[in-house]
Write a structure and sequence with these properties.
Helix content is 32%, strand content 24%. The protein has 15 helices and 22 strands. Helix 3 packs across helix 7. The N and C termini lie far apart (52 Å).
């Protein structure tokens, strides 16, 4: 089989089918390892970690950060984390599966047929016996604001591979990338950081309290968070000037646009650029074409793309053997976890209260102040956080859980297990959390519910 795209999803498909006994070719036009490895998940967390650690130290009486961040050292660590943008190791991993790695732009040229245009312009045709998998990821969306494209704004790649931190930074957007990079770059030297958010809050797909807590933390650090603000026009003449919808202007050295992403389906030889897949990740209307990760639009998270890839690889192997797939991708809607690595961290799995009610569930929601948990208090003075659980009253199972607070990402997998397994609250009550850990939040939430 053939995979177009060597990001985390594409690599996982290849690994899975080779393990199942098939041969595989992997086509990649840029860097093996994909967006996450070089321009997203990995470098952004390398940039965020010093800020997180400094904040943690600052909350413990008797300790204080040694001083401002050594930006050069932080950027050097970031470069090490992305292997200095060299994919030799990732290519080696693919070839050791073993699979064939082909450098170039892959395009469908017929059923099970892929044409690859190499770096020098030469063309090679590859034919799959069983399947072709599209794993080409997603690309940033640039809103149609007059002058924006011409102003050469930063995208997420520019932010994570930054070489010189701008003194004045404007950030357009209020989602995950906007929040993470605004905090990271502000900590590293963007003293005048302004977030321009069209909506009424940050992180609009999560519980409202999470965005409110994060906005408060950002403002305390000196980040100017402007909600309900739209940009009417942008121009660049050395600096970037933004005219806002209220008639005022804002000047910045750089403008980061982080307003979302769309599936990267351009120039793949598709009849339609929108891909609809079933739960084995087979493109509807086809018996040989699959799509995994961001490109299918189901769930634009790296770990969910890898999950889809495992399902897809196993499905291809099963069908090659004349069998039906044994597992289907069901976690995209019910149990997809997400972490925002800001300070405070925000993480969630499953449905928000609003989404659960919209789906027709009979819902009861319970919340608890994380700062009142003994383990959280011990982590630092002034620890502030909150937890919320959304319960399906009819079945007495969790539909969704959200945490906001320092270090809460490590609480999330327990919630993911509970939501995905649909474990009853009565059973969860017997899962005793260790004292004095922050995990005691589970006991407090269940007590708030009445158990």
């Amino acid at each position: 089989m053939i995979v177009i795209g060597a990001g985390p999803a594409g690599e996982n498909v290849a690994g899975r089918v080779v393990r199942g006994g098939l041969t595989c070719a992997v086509v990649e036009t840029h860097l093996a390892g994909g967006e996450c490895s070089y321009y997203a998940c990995i470098p952004s967390k390398a940039l965020l970690r010093p800020m997180e650690l400094a904040a943690e130290v600052g909350r413990v009486p008797g300790l204080r950060p040694a001083g401002p961040a050594d930006v050069e050292a932080v950027l050097k660590r970031r470069d090490e984390a992305v292997s200095d943008y060299d994919d030799h190791g990732q290519v080696g991993w693919i070839e050791d599966l073993p699979a064939r790695f082909v450098r170039g732009r892959g395009r469908l040229a017929g059923p099970r047929l892929v044409e690859v245009t190499g770096p020098g312009g030469g063309r090679t045709r590859l034919r799959a016996r069983h399947a072709v998998v599209l794993a080409t990821g997603s690309v940033p969306v640039v809103p149609p604001i007059p002058g924006l494209a011409e102003a050469r704004p930063w995208g997420s790649r520019d932010a994570t591979e930054v070489r010189r931190v701008p003194e004045r930074l404007a950030v357009l957007g209020g989602g995950v990338v906007a929040c993470e990079m605004a905090q990271a770059l502000h900590f590293l030297g963007a003293r005048e950081t302004t977030m321009l958010v069209r909506g009424s809050g940050l992180l609009p797909r999560m519980e409202p309290f999470a965005g409110e807590m994060l906005a408060g933390s950002m403002r305390e650090r000196g980040i100017d968070v402007r909600l309900g603000t739209q940009v009417a026009e942008v121009r660049r003449d050395g600096a970037v000037t933004l005219r806002l919808d209220d008639g005022s202007t804002l000047e910045a050295d750089e403008l980061l646009v982080a307003t979302g992403r769309r599936p990267a389906t351009d120039d793949l030889g598709l009849e339609e650029n929108r891909l609809e897949v079933d739960d084995s990740l087979l493109v509807r209307g086809s018996d040989w074409l699959y799509a995994v990760g961001d490109v299918n639009g189901r769930n634009l998270l790296t770990h969910m793309g890898k999950y889809q890839a495992r399902i897809c690889g196993d499905a291809i192997v099963a069908r090659a053997r004349g069998e039906s797939p044994k597992a289907l991708a069901t976690a995209d809607g019910r149990g997809a976890p997400q972490v925002v690595f800001t300070d405070p961290q925000v993480c969630a799995v499953g449905l928000t209260e609003e989404a659960a009610r919209a789906k027709g569930f009979t819902v009861r929601a319970v919340e608890y102040d994380l700062g009142r948990v003994s383990g959280a208090y011990l982590l630092g003075e002034g620890y502030a956080g909150r937890a919320k659980a959304v319960v399906d009253e009819r079945r007495r199972v969790l539909l969704g859980v959200t945490f906001a607070g320092p270090g809460v990402a490590e609480l999330l997998h327990a919630a993911t297990v509970a939501v995905t397994a649909e474990t009853s609250l009565d059973t969860l009550w017997h899962a005793v959390p260790a004292f004095p850990s922050v995990s005691e939040i589970w006991l407090r939430l269940l007590e708030e519910y009445g158990l």
